[in-house]
Amino acid sequence: MRTTIVKAAVILFASTAAIIGCDNSDNSAATQQQKTPLDSAAKVRRGEYLVTVGVCDDCHSPKTMGPKGPEIDPERRLSGYPSQRPLPKFDTVMANKGITQFNEDFTAYAGPWGVSFSANLTGDATGAGSWPLQKFIYAIRNGKFKGDANGRDLLPPMPWFNYKLMTDEDLASIHAYLKTLKPVENVPPAPKKFSEL
Q1: What is the mean pLDDT of residues 155-163?
Q2: What is the domain count for the chain?
Q3: DSSP assigned state of 86
């Protein structure tokens, strides 16, 4: 009986050590990967991936109508609501009831807050890609336009409250990628109240 207990204890100890060893090696690899800074090319690739899966183009890229509906205009990609475009018309009654509306290419939105316009994200001086990295991170972490603590809030539908959960490295990668985009000079309109339209 005593021999059986000792054998069982040895088997249990060896199994536990093997499991812990596997867990530690996996965690070490993950920790090492997190601690190893990305080189600039890898950072840009990571930023492109995050911009893609974060569906930034859906709201921030002007579109043209194609055979399958709205298609991203590659010349104005991620440049926000075009400043030369007339202001869109929205149904204020629906918006005041809490029904969100979009313009034809999803770069302007109306709801109880009024009307908001997608920002320019390119690396042009008029775009978020030109902001200093710390301002960019502050904007996403705190929902403040241009990363200005005293500035206006980022308005719907910008999901900054989800994006703020990204790591600093993720946000730095997005920022690095935005700097590689074709700079587009464009200053979208400031948010409007319905009375201003």
Answers
A1: 96
A2: 1
A3: P
CA 27/CA 73 separation, integer angstroms: 43
Whether residue 188 contacts residue 80, with contact meaning beta carbons closer than 8 Å, is answered with yes
Phi and psi, residue 71, nearest 5°? -125, 140
Quote the CA–CA distance of 72 and 60 in Å, as a whole number: 10
Contact 46, 83 (CB under 8 A): no
Q: Which two tokens stand for residue 30?
A: 């993950």
How is residue 14 written in tokens? 């060896």
> Containing domain of residue 84, as a range?
39-196
pTM value?
0.78
**132 located within any domain:** yes
**pLDDT band for position 112 (cuts 50, 70, 90):** very high
Strands of the sheet with 114-117, listed across from one edge: 101-102, 108-111, 114-117
Closest residue by Cα to residue 189 from 128, 122, 118: 118
Q: Is residue 122 part of a domain?
A: yes
Is residue 99, in this structure, part of any structural domain at all? yes
Per the CB < 8 A criterion, the answer to whether 149 and 175 are in contact is no
